[in-house]
Please model this.
Amino acid sequence: MAVEMLSYIKRSSPVHELSGATKLILFIMWSSAAMLTYDTRVLLFLLVISIAIFIVSKIHLREVSFVLFFILFFLFLNNIAIYLFSPQEGVKIYGTSHVLFDIASRYNVTLEQLFYQFNITIKYFVVIPAALLFIVTTHPSEFAASLNRIGVPYKIAYAVSIALRYIPDIQRDFRNIAQSQQARGIDLSKKEKLFKRIKNASSIIIPLILSSLDRIEVITNAMELRGFGKNKRRTWYSRKPFKRADYITIVSGACILGAALFITFHDGNRFYNPFVK
Model:
């Protein structure tokens, strides 16, 4: 059976046992630390912790491989774009220029530019596991409850929950429609030419859109019949109470964030510069 992308994966792990609110707060602190710092030492420390947490979660890499490869592809494009539009950004930041080789005009490869883009790459590797874990280890209903718990209006929280629940449904509908169309002789395999495959894909997209609109109408009617949105507040069946592990995790995350910001900004410069002695 195919693994569905970005859907809740049930496991017995310390990460799954944490409440959705704890994981949301920790993810916000973790992302803030990774985005605000360019200190390589801090980023490498966060990377090691991020990998360790991923291992503890018991989520297998193959279960998120498609999304991971998709993100890494855009990381590759991002690095190329950074170099094309600003090939001397590292030289400007670190104030030195160690040229490895010249290409053309202002385009050359320097240690400073490689180090700058290396830091950007580490940022992605720090945040990606945390983001994937937050999504696949948190049940959509619990996620909605956690959003509401930190102050997000419950209507918005519930909309996010429905969107996350809908991702696996779309994937199942896509596979069912694709198999039905292939049974009718519409080839979507690599045997067909690319243009023909794109044209044949429209026979899947249109029924998928129509079935999605039909499901939206059914859900909307069901929510209206149950009086959704009538009251200003609501209770949550899937809401988890805070336990000792939740408090320890939040405090630990706050300490890591505080330490990362202190190390980054204590000298007034958030860029760690190994080129200046």
Remarks:
- The first helix runs from residue 14 to 17.
- The CA atoms of residues 217 and 223 lie 10 Å apart.
- The chain has one domain: 14-230+242-265.
